[in-house]
Design a protein that fits this description.
- This protein has about 160 residues and is an alpha/beta fold.
- It has helices spanning about 15-30, 50-70, 90-95, 110-115, 120-125, and strands spanning about 5-10, 35-40, 80-85, 100-105, 130-135.
- It has a single domain (about 5-45, about 50-135), classed as HUPs (Rossmann fold).
- Mean pLDDT is about 85; it is low at about 145-155.
């Protein structure tokens, strides 16, 4: 019997780190493995210098550091990593084609952002052939307005 396989997307954000932490903890609970994937793209003009190699190296390094931190409480969980060039949603859906679960972090952006820019999580939810879990970023507590004067009430 094959171990429960979790694929987790990582882009360096707080949401992605929370997703990686959750995926490793879930793999520990289920006796499974984690495959952490980061997608990267070089969208700048080609200046004759192969900066793409540097981009890939930086993406791999950030992923490895995050995996080391996420595995600290669960050293027995096997975690593999992969940095793949391409659009994030496409890369993650392909990586999760034979997975039991795909885990993503929420970006924390509002509806307008998603309407204009699009959402990797939404694209993965629509295209993935396995269940998708999106780990939310905690909402920042809104500052309550400072009171200028004490509030009093009277009953007449």
């Amino acid at each position: 019997m094959q171990a429960y396989r979790i694929v987790v997307g990582f882009d360096g954000s707080e949401g992605a780190m929370r997703a990686l932490d959750w995926a490793v903890a879930e793999a520990a609970r289920r006796g499974g493995t984690v495959h952490a994937v980061t997608a990267w793209q070089w969208i700048q003009p080609d200046l004759g210098v192969d900066i793409r190699v540097d981009r890939e190296r930086l993406a791999r390094q950030a992923l490895e550091e995050a995996v080391t931190a996420a595995r600290a409480p669960y050293p027995r969980v096997a975690v593999s990593t992969e940095a793949v060039p391409g659009a994030a949603a496409d890369v993650l859906v392909r990586a999760a084609a034979d997975a039991d679960l795909l885990v993503l972090g929420s970006s924390g952006h509002g509806r307008l952002f998603h309407a204009v820019v699009g959402s990797t999580a939404e694209a993965c939810i629509r295209a993935a052939v396995c269940p998708v879990v999106v780990i939310p970023v905690p909402r920042v507590a809104e500052k309550s307005a400072e009171r200028v004067a004490p509030i009093s009430s009277a009953v007449y």
